[in-house]
Amino acid sequence: MDLDILRHSCSHIMAAAVKSLWPETKLSIGPSIEDGFYYDFDKKEPFALEDLEKIEARMREIIAADLPFVREELSKKEARELFSKLGEAYKLELIDDIPDEKVSIYRTGKDFVDLCRGPHVARTSEIKAFKLLSIAGAYWHGIETNPMLQRIYGTAFDKAADLEKYLAVLEEAKKRDHRRLGKDLGLFDIYHEEAGSGLVFYHPAGAVLRNILETYEKQEHVRRGYEMVVTPHVLKWGLWKTSGHADYYAENMYRFSIDGQDYAVKPMNCPGHILIYKSQTRSYRDLPLRLFELGTVYRHEKSGVLHGLLRVRSFTQDDAHIFCLPEQVKAEIKDVLDFVFDTMKLFGFKDFHIELSTRPKKSIGTDEDWQRATDALRASLDEKKLSYDINEGDGAFYGPKIDIKLKDAIGRLWQCATIQCDFALPEKFDLAYVGDDGKNARPVMLHRVIFGSLERFIGTLIEHYAGNFPLWLSPRQVVVVPVKAEHEAYARAVEKELRARDIRAVCDTASETLNKKIRNAEVSKVPYVAVVGGREAAGHAVSVRSKKKGDMGAMPVEDFIRQLETEIKNKDI
User: Fold this and answer.
1) For 478-570, CATH number?
2) Is 321 a known ligand-binding residue?
3) Cα–Cα 20 to 30 A to 501, which of 73, 127, 257, 487?
């Protein structure tokens, strides 16, 4: 059975159950979505979590009754009369937005009717396995000035076994939630009331993890022929008018004035890189020119969509712009794809999902240039023999793009790298190079990120590894634990010796029992614990406990260090 149809039908049954339990509730919309469905309700009193059990029980009664889903077609006038009598104001607004003169409704039993295009299952008894999951708020039409509705999420499957498997993944996802682990492991926080929403504060451990990513990227970009640049955080508003962001992205930008001149905090790094390109005359021999920046950008995201590190108002992109000859475009795209896959495999990701996103309704540039850009991206994927889906209308306003999503340890997809092919901005900024014929020609511009944003990638890493980072990524690699206070001096000496070899070690001198200290290190997901007492001090040794291997016994400090260095160098996952 088609899961979208099954889930959409289940959302109708949920709405029927809610109307049965709370008749005064007004109905909004209830579509199927990836992995489930939701329905938005206007109810005077808020739903409580225990209400989900009541709704589920009523849904089971409706399913057991084996009621048919009956489709009827009405004129818009008849539909308005029907839903006016029912007091369903949101349905009336939806009817007004339907361009056709006829609309369809579905009846489920004698008491429930909903405006819907369908299709649905034939009878309610076809719903075999479902679960209501959560309650959230949602503005009508997603507009903050509209009424706040209550959204109930749920899911449904053909088989109970599939539902149980999905619920197990959800339970595991809760344990891996980067917001909880970020706090528990002292990586970051994002909830300073005094500072504002969607702004990340990296604590020492989180800053170490971020620095590992930054160091890797700087070294790897240089190896692959990129040149590092740094651009300002604020630029004149006129520059954003030229780029098109003022027309297509203004609602997400922070704008202000200084001395009567309008500026904006940058939401993107591209205009700054364009100005660097334009700072001197470029020859065809200079191309491709690959400019890379760890550029922090700022976007006015609505408070309702902020989500840990995954959706914030300030984040750092590993942003690069490649200015190249038209005949170099495919080779550059393929090189970026190789860069992405090499990097993701290094960080422990092996499965990917690729989408090619095409021209959106709001866009700039000619049809011909959009076709050329789309063809270049498609040909590059085809020549690499990569499978991909077409995501119609989801490109950037200046060009189509390839999106690469990572599959994590429990099968979830995370947005990561993006490659955009752009003929429009070089035209708008009148970019040029001197060709081999001595005449000016227009370069092509590729926008690309590898991690996407450091914030989102860190959140992805936390959830992929459930905070149990491999040694080379772990902010704290070793905790040195003295058995007694009298062994603290030796413990400090071991810590110093480890740090001198660039191993991230800390010494736990808290006034707690040995077992408690070891337990604290395990809870903090530190890969190794080095216990030191009198015997270890006498033999310049440590007793090692590994998070993966358990008790490894005593060994000389130098042997322990060499073992750590090998594991770090190999970047073992």
Assistant:
1) 3.40.50.800
2) yes
3) 487
